[in-house]
Design a protein that fits this description.
Blueprint (H helix, E strand, L loop, with lengths): L15 H9 L1 H6 L2 E8 L3 E8 L7 H10 L10 E10 L6 H9 L10 E12 L7 E10 L4 H18 L1 H11 L9 E7 L2 E7 L9 H7 L7 E3 L7 H5 L6 H9 L4 E4 L3 H13 L9 E3 L9 H5 L8 E5 L3 H5 L5 E4 L9 E3 L12 E4 L9 H12 L4 H29 L21 H11 L11 H8 L3 H27 L3 H5 L4 H16 L6 H17 L2 H10 L1
Parallel strand pairs: 7-8, 9-11, 9-12, 10-11, 13-14
Antiparallel strand pairs: 1-2, 1-5, 3-4, 4-5, 6-7, 12-14
């Protein structure tokens, strides 16, 4: 039975049309899910006009969410062209190529397994030929990839062309994207769209980030393309400038995945600030939920806004004044002014917040760490002297990178100490597991190897760590590091097995024990176990040796089973 429009659960069984779509648009589907056009219908309101490529799968709920997220909440203040981005939940699976890409990609650039990212280009202009008096339409690029810089540039190219030339431009853009190279980390890419070529580099876990000049050197193209020096970075300082005095407070709130609502007058402002907040703790990935732009019509509205003792770990970007009352029980609110140049104040509020019209950071939170007044002073001096925002952003990112690394290095060091000793690894027993993570043991290491070794910022570091251990940010980091340790232990055990003499081992062993070892080797060689190529070759030889000591009938039985 083919998948219906409302459910992804049965997607293992694909219809002929779906299989044909997957073959025809396989390369497109690695980079984008689809391109949607949303218009305003006098009877229906916001409505899906068309989706490209034809035949792409979206549930009715996803279509509804896309339609509401495609328009600003209050259109009257958004004349002309408006750009912003959104995230919406999906149960659709990643493509096989996206899964392979995630294995080698840096954590902050991985294909999103639970959400679509939507890059929106909304146009509202007066048009007397339309009954409502306004032309209102949005183009949305829907993707699993958080390539903010790249896709903002792509939508800036595609949307105006569509407004001028109609659907044929979207068809042409989809065919261009379907000819892009395979999605892969650690490579430089030339990405042509509608006569323009974007050039960028996607780092992997080994290469890290590269500079604009590095990208230019790597490709010798006769036509100089549009260089996207970083496919993801945003101008953090521009987004944070009105709240820059509270930089360290915001870093702690994001690190500990506190619920935060960002209230702004436009989706452009709130989506920029929400995204900037999630970047404050890089290279650590922000792993809690966040919505750069969120409306009262979203399918998760009740989930996020219901009154409860502990609001969910979410950062929400909103523009509708209705949220002022609905989210007054949330512990932290950032209210932006209409002009980002206005400074905000930190406002301590009671249990029930009454937000006034003034911009500010509304919270009762008491930071664990002292503020680094020197960096705040430098940034304020930069504002007064009109220092370029790119320079200000570089200062902010360098300072917070050092702060995050000072926080994480003791954890990385302690995690490495959980590796069992190599003498405990036996070629003939299952690989040992990492030792358990014990917070109190970790705290006992801080006096000799704590954050104070790499930063001058003082405060209650242990209290901050305790809060951090309760967050999705810690859980995601821990599970990834635990997986790395487990894989390393497996690899060491298999290397020991590959270097042993299984013929000697088999002497005096019962047939069932030898069969068990044969089955284990077959399983290892069949699966993608993280071992070096020479280890795999040696294990194949070991399998041949063991097969040689088995009786012919058992050998035939095992070969038939495999």
């Amino acid at each position: 039975m083919a998948c219906g429009s409302e459910n992804y659960d049965d997607c293992d069984i694909l219809s002929l049309e779906e299989r044909e779509f997957n073959v025809k648009w396989s390369r497109f589907s690695e980079w984008l899910h689809c391109i949607c056009v949303v218009t305003f219908d006098l009877e229906l309101g916001q409505a899906m006009e068309c989706v490209y490529p034809p035949g792409v799968k979206l549930t009715d709920q996803e279509k509804c969410n896309i339609c509401y997220l495609a328009f600003p909440d209050s259109n009257s203040g958004c004349m002309g062209d408006t750009q912003f981005h959104v995230r919406l939940r999906t149960r659709a699976r990643l493509t096989p190529q996206q899964l392979n890409y995630n294995e080698d990609s840096v954590s902050t650039l991985r294909a999103d397994s639970t959400h679509y990212w939507g890059f929106v280009y909304f146009r509202q202009v007066k048009d007397t030929s339309i009954p409502r008096g306004y032309f209102q339409k949005s183009i949305i690029l829907l993707t699993r990839l958080p390539y903010i810089n790249l896709f903002y540039k792509v939508i800036q190219l595609i949307a105006p062309r569509h407004f001028e030339d109609g659907e044929r431009s979207l068809e042409a853009a989809c065919h261009d994207i379907n000819r892009w190279p395979p999605l892969d980390a650690g490579h430089n890419f030339l990405l042509p769209v509608l006569g323009t070529v974007f050039q960028s580099y996607i780092p992997n876990q080994q290469t890290g980030k590269v500079t604009r000049s590095d990208i230019i050197k790597q490709v010798h193209s006769p036509n100089i393309p549009h260089i996207v020096a970083s496919i993801q970075d945003v101008n953090v300082f521009d987004a944070l400038s009105s709240v820059i005095s509270h930089l360290h407070l915001l870093w702690e709130l994001v690190l500990t995945a506190e619920p935060i609502v960002v209230m702004a007058s436009s989706p452009t402002e709130c989506s920029s600030l929400v995204q900037a907040l999630t970047y404050l703790i890089q290279p650590l990935s922000y792993s809690a939920e966040y919505r750069p732009y969120f409306t009262i019509h979203d399918s998760e509205f009740k989930e996020f806004t219901r009154k409860q003792f502990n609001p969910p770990c979410v950062i929400l970007g909103v523009t509708n004044p209705f949220f002022t009352k609905t989210l007054q029980h949330w512990p932290h609110t950032i209210k932006l002014s209409d002009s980002s140049s206005v400074k905000t104040k930190l406002r301590k509020v009671g249990n029930m917040k009454q937000l006034d019209t003034a911009p500010g950071v509304y919270t009762q939170y008491k930071p664990f760490l002292e503020k680094d007044k020197a960096i705040i002073k430098k940034l304020h001096n930069g504002i007064r002297s009109d220092r370029p925002s790119e320079v200000q952003t570089a200062m902010v990112k360098r300072h917070l990178l050092e702060l995050t690394q000072s926080f994480m290095i003791p954890l990385e060091r302690y995690m490495a100490s959980l590796m069992p000793l190599q003498k405990n690894i036996s070629p003939f027993r299952a690989a040992p597991i990492p030792n358990p993570f014990n917070p109190e043991d970790f705290f006992s290491t801080l006096q000799q190897a704590g954050p104070h070794l790499t930063t001058g910022i003082k405060g209650d570091w242990i209290g901050l760590y305790r809060n951090f251990f309760r967050t999705p940010n810690f859980s995601a980091w821990f599970h990834e590091r635990h997986k790395d340790l487990t894989n390393k232990l497996q690899a060491l055990q298999l290397e020991a097995l590959a270097g042993s003499d299984l013929k000697v081992w088999s002497v005096g062993k019962k047939e069932v024990e030898i069969v068990d070892m044969v089955l284990k080797l077959k399983e290892v060689l069949k699966n993608d176990v993280p071992v070096a190529g020479n280890t795999r070759t040696l294990l194949s030889r070991q399998l041949e040796d063991l097969n040689g000591v088995l009786a012919e009938d058992m050998k035939s039985l095992l070969n038939a089973a495999s």
